[in-house]
Amino acid sequence: MLNFKTEDIVIDGADYTNKKQATVSLFDHLGYPAGTQLGADVYRAAKIKKEPVNIREVKTKTYTGKVMLYRKEFLIEYFENV
Protein backbone atom coordinates (compact mmCIF):
# COMPACT_ATOMS: atom_id res chain seq x y z
CA MET A 1 0.00 0.00 0.00
CA LEU A 2 1.30 3.43 -0.90
CA ASN A 3 1.51 5.94 1.89
CA PHE A 4 1.19 9.48 0.58
CA LYS A 5 1.23 12.57 2.71
CA THR A 6 -0.41 15.63 1.23
CA GLU A 7 2.78 17.64 1.67
CA ASP A 8 4.72 15.07 -0.41
CA ILE A 9 2.61 15.69 -3.50
CA VAL A 10 3.66 18.43 -5.87
CA ILE A 11 0.70 20.37 -7.19
CA ASP A 12 1.63 23.37 -9.27
CA GLY A 13 -1.79 24.62 -10.31
CA ALA A 14 -0.77 28.02 -11.72
CA ASP A 15 1.90 26.81 -14.14
CA TYR A 16 -0.01 23.66 -14.93
CA THR A 17 -3.26 25.46 -15.70
CA ASN A 18 -1.48 27.94 -17.93
CA LYS A 19 -0.04 25.11 -20.02
CA LYS A 20 -3.51 23.54 -20.32
CA GLN A 21 -2.11 20.04 -20.33
CA ALA A 22 -4.41 17.14 -19.58
CA THR A 23 -3.71 14.91 -16.63
CA VAL A 24 -4.47 11.21 -16.73
CA SER A 25 -4.21 8.29 -14.35
CA LEU A 26 -2.01 5.29 -15.02
CA PHE A 27 -5.19 3.28 -15.64
CA ASP A 28 -6.34 5.82 -18.24
CA HIS A 29 -2.92 5.77 -19.91
CA LEU A 30 -2.27 2.01 -19.85
CA GLY A 31 -5.83 0.74 -20.17
CA TYR A 32 -5.45 -1.61 -17.19
CA PRO A 33 -4.68 -1.32 -13.45
CA ALA A 34 -1.01 -0.45 -12.99
CA GLY A 35 -0.64 -1.95 -9.53
CA THR A 36 1.00 -0.64 -6.41
CA GLN A 37 4.65 -1.10 -7.40
CA LEU A 38 4.39 0.53 -10.82
CA GLY A 39 2.32 3.34 -9.31
CA ALA A 40 5.02 3.98 -6.72
CA ASP A 41 7.77 3.90 -9.38
CA VAL A 42 5.97 6.44 -11.58
CA TYR A 43 5.24 8.67 -8.59
CA ARG A 44 8.92 8.64 -7.56
CA ALA A 45 9.99 9.50 -11.11
CA ALA A 46 7.48 12.37 -11.19
CA LYS A 47 8.82 13.76 -7.90
CA ILE A 48 12.41 13.57 -9.16
CA LYS A 49 11.47 15.45 -12.34
CA LYS A 50 9.36 17.92 -10.32
CA GLU A 51 6.31 17.01 -12.40
CA PRO A 52 2.94 18.27 -11.23
CA VAL A 53 0.83 15.50 -9.71
CA ASN A 54 -2.89 15.88 -9.15
CA ILE A 55 -5.20 13.59 -7.20
CA ARG A 56 -8.61 12.20 -8.05
CA GLU A 57 -10.83 10.24 -5.65
CA VAL A 58 -12.32 7.15 -7.31
CA LYS A 59 -14.78 4.49 -6.28
CA THR A 60 -15.19 1.40 -8.43
CA LYS A 61 -16.15 -2.22 -7.82
CA THR A 62 -12.52 -3.14 -7.26
CA TYR A 63 -10.89 0.04 -5.89
CA THR A 64 -11.82 2.96 -3.69
CA GLY A 65 -9.27 5.63 -2.93
CA LYS A 66 -6.94 8.22 -4.38
CA VAL A 67 -5.48 8.03 -7.86
CA MET A 68 -2.51 10.09 -8.96
CA LEU A 69 -2.85 12.06 -12.20
CA TYR A 70 0.12 12.93 -14.37
CA ARG A 71 0.70 14.92 -17.55
CA LYS A 72 0.11 12.65 -20.54
CA GLU A 73 3.44 13.76 -22.04
CA PHE A 74 5.28 12.74 -18.86
CA LEU A 75 3.71 9.25 -18.95
CA ILE A 76 4.57 8.79 -22.62
CA GLU A 77 8.18 9.75 -21.91
CA TYR A 78 8.34 7.58 -18.78
CA PHE A 79 7.13 4.42 -20.53
CA GLU A 80 9.36 4.99 -23.58
CA ASN A 81 12.38 4.94 -21.25
CA VAL A 82 11.66 1.98 -18.95
Write the layout of secondary structure elements.
Layout: H1 13-19, E1 23-24, H2 26-30, H3 36-48, E2 54-59, E3 64-71, H4 72-80
Antiparallel strand pairs: 1-3, 2-3
Oligomer: single chain
Number of domains: 1
- Give the % helix: 40-55%
Number of strands: 3
> Which value, in Å, is the CA radius of gyration?
12 Å
Outline, from the CA principal axes? globular
The number of helical segments is 4
| Strands side by side in the biggest sheet | 1-3-2
Low-confidence segments, given as residue ranges, are 4-18
Q: Mind summarizing the main beta sheet?
A: 3 strands, antiparallel
Cα(first) to Cα(last) distance is 22 Å
Give the integer mean of the pLDDT values.
82
| Fraction in beta strands | 15-25%
Alpha-beta content class: alpha+beta
Return the string of H and E elements: HEHHEEH
Kindly describe this structure:
Helices cover 41% and strands 20% of the residues. 13% of the residues are buried. It has one domain. With 82 residues, the protein is α+β, with helices and mostly antiparallel strands. The protein contains 4 helices and 3 strands; from the N terminus they run H-E-H-H-E-E-H. It is globular. It has a 3-stranded antiparallel β-sheet with strand order 1-3-2. The protein has helices spanning 13-19, 26-30, 36-48, 72-80, and strands spanning 23-24, 54-59, 64-71.
